[in-house]
Write a structure and sequence with these properties.
Layout: E1 2-5, H1 11-21, H2 37-42, H3 44-49, E2 54-59, E3 62-70, H4 73-91, H5 104-109, E4 125-131, H6 140-154, E5 159-165, H7 169-177, E6 181-185, E7 189-195
Parallel strand pairs: 4-5
Antiparallel strand pairs: 1-2, 2-3, 3-4, 5-7, 6-7
The structure holds coenzyme A.
Length: 217
Amino acid sequence: MHLRPFRSTDTDHLYDICLRTGDNGRDGSDRCVHPRLCGSCFAAPYAEHDPSLCLILEDDDGPCGYVLGTADTRAFAAWFNTVWLPRLRREFAGLKPRPGAFDNWMLDLIHEDMEVPGFVDAYPAHLHIDLLPRAQGGGWGRRMIHAWAALAGARGAPAFHLGVSSANANAVAFYRHIGLHEIARTEWGYFLGMETPKAGSDPSGPRGDHGPPPALD
Ligand SMILES: CC(C)(COP(=O)(O)OP(=O)(O)OC[C@H]1O[C@@H](n2cnc3c(N)ncnc32)[C@H](O)[C@@H]1OP(=O)(O)O)[C@@H](O)C(=O)NCCC(=O)NCCS
């Protein structure tokens, strides 16, 4: 298992991994409106907007996880709303909700512009992370967040945030365990955040007890 930079040939894997973890951490492929809707909202746009902030976890069977995001949420939202969302509205035009589908709510999402919460001034970067079951529980989630935070910090972001559904109890517990703190509560969950490593500081993250972030191949 190793972490490496994104390549354009990884794009289909982003959609696949997003779908197979998209139902609050579980596989949503059997009950989705459309297999690319989840990845179109939460994975592929980041790799398109800034591939250098997309890291791929890979083992002998291929890509099995990613961490991706933006160092500048305001700039990303401006691009997402003017370039990416119009594409999605065309691609998914006419798609109807399906009873019981986990991604029904994303059909509404693509018809609303992305809003930028006020706390992005303090937490300008944001990320998404998803690992397939075979990659979970081995310490890679922690390492990937620290590696990504170092990249975002090098871009000048002093801190990052992420959104997590309260229905995804495992992810909430994981984030809190590795040191993210609560920024805000919403009707669907939490915004959590963490500072990025400062230049010259211990690169192993806030707890400093798990070694440095893995080198990228
Ligand atoms: C959530 C996720 C990113 C965590 O990554 P992971 O590789 O499984 O987690 P790690 O093995 O790196 O765990 C790091 C630490 O968090 C702890 N941890 C992980 N899950 C936990 C949980 N549910 N409760 C408490 N602690 C937890 C681990 O015990 C470990 O502790 P340690 O380093 O002190 O020994 C990963 O499981 C995943 O992608 N899940 C499915 C998709 C998903 O839910 N994504 C998040 C969407 S917001």
